[in-house]
Fold this protein.
Amino acid sequence: MNIERKALWAVRQSALPMVVRPCPDCPGTRHRPSGRFRVNANGKLLDVWLLLHCAGCGRTSKVPVHERAHVSSLDPARLVAYESNDLAAVRELAMSASLAAKNEYRLDRAGAWELKSDTPQPDLDDPRPLAVQVRFELPAPVRVERLLMVGLGLSRTAIRRLVADARIQLPLAPRARTRRDFELTVTGTVPPAPLPLHRPKVVIVGVHRVASPTR
Ligand SMILES: [Zn+2]
């Protein structure tokens, strides 16, 4: 296929994921990192927590990062990062799948990524095929059809129809989640074939005339 149109879509992190776990004070389950740690020292033993705010009621809650850790077991630079609410350390832990697993909560990254394209949103009426390189700069998987919805500015139903019609060709199922780079091809609207000048005759077969009874 002769590809004349090309685009590069970069999937990037735009915000920290939400921490999903029950809030004791409200029916909400979504929490945002507050951007702060709490460090408690008891002699040579340290407790370090990542602080969260409930998106529903604002309640502050804590996620244990280190519990009763001997001060000598922590990297001094790391300790300074906790004590100074270092943003990079907050980001790293707020995104950490292993911290989430250890503390039995889920990370919701639905609104935490954005798609940057090097071209304007493609014109789907342009019949020339468009090759799109999708490049991940995000450490988490994204649902393929969600990417296509954002990149092409279409509804889920429209995306599924285009995939079913093979106008979008891609190496993954639309419902799959991926974090690996891939390439897809979008074929614009094929101009409709000219209408035939004469409508085909309607031929009805198998209908027999039933003689009406003589009165
Ligand atoms: Zn709450």
